[in-house]
Amino acid sequence: MKNSLKIILTIICVWFTVSVNHAQLIRVIDHKGTPKDVDNSKWQLSGSDIYYKFGGKVGIGTNNPGAQLHTTGTIMFSGLGTNTTHTNIMTTDGSGNVTTRSLANMLNGNAMTSLNGLTNSIQTFSIGTAGTNIGITSSGSTHTFNIPTASSTNRGALSSGDWTNFNNKEGAVLSGTTTQYYRGDKTWQTLNTTTVSEGTNLYFTNARSRSAVSLTTTGTSGAATYNATTGVLNIPNYADGGITSINGLSGLIQTFSTGTSGSDVGITSTGSTHTFNIPTASATNRGALSSGDWTNFNNKEGAVLSGTTTQYYRGDKTWQTLNTTAVSEGTNLYFTNARSRSAVSLTTTGTSGAATYNATTGVLNIPNYADGGITSINGLTGLIQTFSTGTSGSDVGVTSSGSTHTFNIPTASATNRGALSSGDWTNFNNKIGLVTATTSASVTTTGTDININNTASHWNANQLTGRNIASTAPADGQVLTWDATLSTWKPAVFGVFPVVTVAGASYTLSAADHGKILDFTSNSAISLTVPSTLAAGFQVSITQAGTGQITIAGSGGMSVNNRWGGTTTSGRWAKAGLEVRATNSSVLSGDVQ
Predict the structure, then answer these.
(1) N or C: which end of the chain has fewer CB within 10 A?
(2) 499-590, what's its fold?
(3) Is residue 11's pLDDT more than 50?
(4) What pLDDT sits at residue 99?
(5) Per-residue DSSP letters for 95-127?
(6) How much is the pLDDT for 293?
(7) Cα angle vertex 443, ends 438, 444, to 5°?
């Protein structure tokens, strides 16, 4: 209120025993209980009442009273009556003089008329947990501050139980590098073939490669043959058959050797030696895979299982829900009550009209209405009242004292229900999220504990690069290949290409033909088109199974190159190979003219 309400209530407690022994005396008992005689020339007894006859002043605690009744100490009334119609109250000036003043006059010009839509003269605060977000509900004469317990659907205070649950989670796992794996002892280790024990998939050795191939010399004529399934290379005993030349060499004794020259597999025959050049495979060479490249390729990241559209791939290589809880605050600020409240200011310009709000500046103007007003907020009657925040107690609460309403929201802990501290938020945010384990998983859970199996296989993938893998069990020696027709990875024998029969007289290659043998059976001339959409690395084998010769030509800027300038198969059972080496550049090899 504008003036501090000071009410001086005077209580004169005189316990007296009246004894009329003489006509001129009145006996009273002083504050010590001692009987004293008072001259009745000044005091008059009327029934049970006693009064002073003259118009002087009475002082209590002062020998120089300034009014008929002047006290310097505290006073008390008890047993007072009540009413609902009187509108005057007692006030004092700066000197302590008591007068009466109407309530309407006192409230004129500076009183509140509404608090959050309520106009009752006495209003209170209460705490609740209703709803899914922090909010204030004002009804009747009560403002309820609802702070629900935080959950997967609620934004609110963290319960002590959840605090304990979060606090017990696994701490942050620091990221390793792209060449490491997380070992069973919870350390990052380099992942390569040195650290991975050999299982059913065997590592390359020269001895294994050499023992996989055997040589026979059956027959004395005909072409040499090689069975990719059994590894048997048969070279007829040409000495008895009278061969006079092999690849241009006519020496009776000829030998084979290996080399790495060139950018593609080739044979060079000179003197008495046929050199089989198989260059090391690279970005420009088609050839054998070096052990170094094998190790490099084998060390690359394995399949990453798909997450959901609401997740992101975190630095610890796990899928996590992507929302504002997981994203640290940057220049785009998150919503807080403090920020929202500081964005709004209050003015009281004018004395009438509707309240206004400027959404650009955040200024709320409530005119200084002349009449009416709230007289109490949560038990406080001061004209100017303020809000403050605190952290006292073990649960959210409101304390109103003096002219201040303190909203206590303690820091959440194992015993407190309250606000989550930034330190605990960071600690909880760095913990491992939800772990869902299956029966055969390498990671299992027991309550809040995570168990890592460091003796079993850590791989159980049913997808590769987001594509399904066939459930067919692989046989010994098979590898995983892509079947474009079924859109599925499936096991197949290494080096055995699928044969596709083409009966028509024209055909355009597509990416799905990569790694296949196209068997053309038409007896009419056949046109085979190589489009520019084929990617580098595309390879296909072509067989003229019918009498119709096959003419290979590029389209859309794709060039088809051949050492001898050939573009057409030589005749029935002619074989040709096509490889796309770069954008719009392909190489045609084999029996073409």
Answers:
(1) C
(2) Jelly Rolls (2.60.120)
(3) no
(4) 85
(5) T--EEEEEHHHHHTTT----BTTB--SEEEEEE
(6) 81
(7) 60
Cβ neighbors of 207 (< 8 A, separation 6 or more) are none
CB distance 589 to 569 below 8 Å: no
Tokens representing 540 are 């296909």
Q: Give the mean model confidence (pLDDT) for residues 255-284.
A: 90
Domain ranges of the chain: 1-107, 206-289, 463-493, 499-590
Predicted local confidence at residue 10, as pLDDT: 32
Q: Is the distance from CB of 526 to CB of 507 less than 8 angstroms?
A: yes
Residue linked to tokens 């573009």:
567
513 vs 519: CA distance, rounded Å: 12
Q: What letter represents residue 98's amino acid?
A: V
Report which of 136, 144, 119 is spatially closest to residue 375, judged by C-alpha positions: 119
Q: pLDDT tens-digit profile of 116-150?
A: 888 887 888 889 999 999 889 999 889 898 888 98
Phi, psi for 403 (deg, rounded to 5):
-125, 20
Residue matched to tokens 């800027």: 557
Tell me the percentage of the chain whose pLDDT exceeds 70: 83
Q: Is 293 helix (H, G, I), strand (E, B) or coil?
A: helix
Residue at token pair 């006292």 = 392
pLDDT surpassing 50 at residue 369: yes
Q: Half-sphere exposure (CA, 13 Å, Cβ side) for 447?
A: 4
Sign, Cα dihedral of 375, 380, 385, 390: negative
Higher pLDDT, 194 or 583: 583
For residue 16, the number of C-alpha atoms closer than 13 Å in the C-beta half-sphere is: 17
Q: Residue 232 and residue 238: Cα distance in Å, rounded?
A: 18
End-to-end CA distance of the chain: 110
Q: Which amino acid is at 396?
A: V
Whether residue 107 contacts residue 372, with contact meaning beta carbons closer than 8 Å, is answered with: yes
